[in-house]
Amino acid sequence: MKKNSFFQFLLNKRSLVILGFLLVCAGVFTREFFTVSNLTNVMLQIATDGIIAVGATFVIISGGIDLSVGSLVALVSVITIILQTKFNTPIGIIVSIAAGISVGLLNGLLITRVGISPFVTTLGMMTLIKGIALAVSDSHSHSGIDPNFARLADYPIFGIPFAAIIFLLFVLAANAFLVKTSIGRGYYAVGGNPEASWLAGLNTNRYILMAYVFCSFCTAIGGILLTSRINTGSPIIAGDTGTTVVSAVLLGGTSMAGGIGTVYGTFIGVLILGVLKNMMNLMGIGGYYQTIFLGLLLVITVLADRTHFNQHK
Amino acid sequence: MKKLFAVFMVTIVFLTLSATVIAADAPLYVVINKSADQQYFIDLQNAFVAKTEELGGTAKKFDAKLDPALGVSLIDDAISAGAKGIAITVPDQTIGPAIAKAAKDAGVVLIATDDSIVDEAGAPVPFVGFDGKDMGKKVGEAAGKLLTEAGWLNDSAKKVGVLSVEVQTLSVCNDRTDNEKEQIKLVGVTDDQIFSVPYTGETLSSQDAAGPIITAHPEITNWVVFGCNDEGVLGTLNALATAGAKPDDIIGVGLGAYEACKPWAAGQPSGWKASLFISGLDVGNTAAQVLHDAVVNGVVPPEKSFAPTSIVDPTNYKDLMDAISVGNCSK
After folding, report:
1. Could you give the domains of chain B?
2. Which of A35, A36, A284 has the CB atom closest to B60's CB atom?
3. Does an H or E element contain A91, and which?
């Protein structure tokens, strides 16, 4: 009985268990991981994907998927720098956020009004946005010219990079909204059982639409901070962002079936991926081995999710 | 459960404290690729690691996967890992200022391999690679020499056309092809005999671009082909073969030799008559030496360090190319 309850605990808290295991491994196998400079580095590296993952959590909890986030980061990056060069940084940021929200609206409307599946809609948008990013940038990168913007993402506040603080604020605010408000709790209902939610009087289409808008808004913010960090507007950045974000959300315990998940879980998922990548880099484990490890971790997580789901049926 | 958590937290705190007092033994150097699935870059990294270890250091290999953002992250990771020197082939030259600043702030020696970059002030970061203009000069000279030896320009029955395969948006490629054209003109080729074939750097792109140009000039009986890399020449040779040109009526001079040597190794007749051999091994070795000299001996890295190049042909490629590259010719 005790053995079974311990296994149940591990299954329920699997993301925390994985993170704990990775942190111990990082300490044992690398002598640099727990240095202050590296921990700051990890915080900075996870911040942009983390902010996007917060938005993606809403989409996945509501039963959808957004594959267009990586392309949107590239578009935001290009818009921010080109408009910074032609006008100024605030205009670049404002137009980038507006572009992000517009993409979210378009995704949401195609899914809710036209009835195209989230997978097909966002796959199409991913390609379309990538094309627009390449067209706007004339297929090449542009360097930023505002030194203040270039320092924005890693500007330290009490030793913590600005991007990491924004990420933490997004996590806290989004979690409070999902857990503490009736509208937030509605997302679980919509994702868990859309028909029943509709019959109960919830406007499911509006929930889904707002989930995609929020996800794209988060992507725009993440994209702006990433652009600041590299001080470059590039149409080819963030190629792995879509995969990383969905992986982080799933690792955090959110179910692809919808209706289950937390923003705190996503935060843990983002940490797992960040720690794993950083640890493997410090250990000198190459890019393709990293991809294999991350893939294995994701498959194991999905299997654990399936086991957990079956036990609660 | 609380006990377990307490033990875990104590372990983490202990590891954090111990991490700050442990120092590395041999100096660590990191080599960052822009694309670890290309043979040239694999050779570069492997040579860098081998040379570094031979010089008494340790080395780690990272792959930026053609992603500029990942390139910046890997610089940060290299610094966190305690690297004393970093060699990077940037996935995008515009990240130069950001990574140069990160390295400078951390007191780490940074050199650029293959693609040059500048720092925040616009000053060039020390570069290890090839001299584009010199490469173009050598390719053009080889093509000119082969053309003169063939005697096509003096034969009234033959009409010569030159296909210059160019990535016109890349300055490093223009350095090569501009000099190739200058050299071919020295043996008597005129501007109206030279046709530019614009491409992206890939084989299929040059093949598609060359096809219409070849078709539009049926009067030309003999072709000279050179370009920015072996892929450009290969695509153009494919287009010539499709148009019915015979290998004996073509002088193809590549840049890289990794495609040119394949028909040579297979003993097949082809339009490839020569190629300029450039080796990732040479760049890796030179980069490792430059970083070692800077970190261990305090030598300021030179602004430019050029790796050697040599023209190879079917008769000498096995002697002039290294064993790894020759082995790849049979793949």
Report:
1. 2-130+280-300 (3.40.50.2300), 132-277+313-329 (3.40.50.2300)
2. A284
3. helix A89-109
